[in-house]
Amino acid sequence: MEPERLQRALARAGLGSRRSCEELIRDGRVTVNGRVAVLGDRVDPERDRVLVDGHVVNVNPGLRYLVLHKPPGVTTTTRDRHASRDLTPFLPRNLRVFPVGRLDRDTEGLLLLTNDGELAQRLTHPRFGVEKEYLAEVEGTPTARQLARLRRGVELEDGVARALKVRAVARSGGRGAVRLVIGEGRKREVRRMLAAVGLPVRRLVRVRQGPLRLGRLQPGEIRELSAEEVRALYRAAGL
Q1: CA pair distance 95, 98, nearest whole angstrom
Q2: Annotated catalytic residue, options 27, 80, 104, 106
């Protein structure tokens, strides 16, 4: 990719108009590869590391960020000859992105896809504790005691799992719904946690990952993230 003027790269990344990006450079708030930038600098978007106020700015137009509402029954992979349904039909053609973390086949909801490996690694590593929020329809009526157990932690076969936040949002006819936030992402973790306290899951939807929310996206729908949403993910990942 050909080098381009720094203010143009910043404007394309969503930092404002070219004129306002020029002001950022004049004020000494922009660095390129550790050096304070000046007007007239050019950057290679694929190679150079650009920071504004100490925060990484994605200026590489080849990096893509999408969010999919994964329907139930779809395997979280783009290539699996053993899967009856995978992600391929939902993705734009000739776009190579990969899922950030996994949703099991029967779980639906928010699935982030990108080719930004550094961001993906941070969002999925337990050390960074990026929150994931789920809405679970369960068998049984959630009680205060069951919710307290989830907050304290329940023993699973691969260690203790705790809910960072949990609350009942519905109770009716021997069934209920629970909103639950975790900071990890072990295999079928939410289902196993709820089963351990006597609330087997009937339906599970991921509604949030870090600052990114599912919103009104319908099952099977996919969209590109805005520049602000990408910056929010970078902040959540400590980048």
Answers
A1: 10
A2: 104
